[in-house]
């Protein structure tokens, strides 16, 4: 009973992976179609009925990597914004000299560094400690993607009108970062996952 996972080779007859999903920015998303697709029993991944469990364990890795991608977007946006603030002249002064600009840059720096630590923790825990990292990976993805959205938005704001001109780095980042808050677990789902792990851990302490 339950779902089972199989390894299906790309050249398997009946497998069609040619349909790409066109979204607001280039992302490797597509549709898989299985038409009369025969898969040998020896291609079973894990044990029968463990497919969902395997998929959820895989999400631990993917959520960490999505968090890392978001961190990269945020760092690029932060670098672009910082360079622009130093270069842009407003009323005879560099944009970076204004306190509101400095406050915005400070918030961006905190968000980037905090996201980095959470992403690194998830990766380190997986590599060194081992086992499931559902809590760590979910926290890393949730914070990194949400904060990246804020950092990129702040970068666009600092660029002003140029920030929404197609072809500008921050404009491209603004489109690309949005999808990360949805796939591999939307932010709302991740909050439920994190809360579940927190409550389970506390319940285990009470019964021990």
Task: Give the secondary structure arrangement, pairings included.
Elements: E1 5-6, E2 15-20, E3 30-34, E4 44-45, H1 51-87, E5 89-90, E6 93-94, H2 99-129, H3 134-159, H4 169-178, H5 187-207
Antiparallel strand pairs: 1-4, 2-3, 5-6
Helix pairs in contact: 1-2, 1-3, 1-4, 2-3, 3-4, 3-5
Describe the fold and architecture:
This protein is mainly alpha-helical and 208 residues long. The chain folds into two domains: 5-45, no CATH class; 52-207, Up-down Bundle (Butyryl-CoA Dehydrogenase, subunit A, domain 3), CATH 1.20.140.10. 60% of the residues lie in helices and 9% in strands. It has five helices and six strands; from the N terminus they run ββββαββαααα. The strands form three sheets. A two-stranded antiparallel sheet has the order 1-4. Strands 2-3 form a two-stranded antiparallel ribbon. Strands 5-6 form a two-stranded antiparallel ribbon. A hairpin with a 2-residue loop joins strand 5 and strand 6. Helix 1 (51-87) packs antiparallel against helix 2 (99-129), helix 1 (51-87) packs antiparallel against helix 4 (169-178) and helix 2 (99-129) packs antiparallel against helix 3. The protein is flat. The two termini are 33 Å apart. The mean pLDDT is 94.
């Amino acid at each position: 009973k339950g779902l089972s996972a199989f390894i299906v080779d790309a050249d398997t007859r009946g497998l069609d992976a040619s349909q790409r999903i066109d979204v607001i920015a280039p992302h490797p998303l597509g549709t898989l179609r299985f038409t009369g697709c025969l898969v040998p029993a020896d291609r079973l991944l894990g044990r029968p009925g463990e497919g969902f469990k395997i998929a959820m364990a895989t999400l631990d890795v993917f959520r960490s990597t999505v968090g890392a991608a978001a961190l990269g977007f945020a760092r690029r946006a932060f670098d672009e914004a910082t360079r622009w603030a130093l270069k842009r002249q407003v009323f005879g002064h560099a944009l970076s000299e204004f306190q509101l600009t400095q406050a915005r840059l400070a918030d961006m720096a905190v968000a980037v560094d905090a996201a980095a630590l959470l992403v690194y923790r998830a990766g380190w825990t997986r590599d060194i400690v081992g086992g499931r990292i559902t809590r760590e990976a979910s926290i890393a993805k949730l914070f990194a993607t949400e904060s990246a959205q804020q950092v990129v938005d702040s970068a666009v704001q600092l660029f002003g009108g140029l920030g929404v001109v197609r072809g500008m780095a921050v404009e491209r980042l603004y489109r690309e970062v949005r999808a990360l808050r949805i796939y591999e677990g939307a932010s709302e789902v991740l909050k439920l996952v994190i809360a579940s792990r927190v409550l389970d851990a506390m319940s285990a302490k009470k019964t021990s």
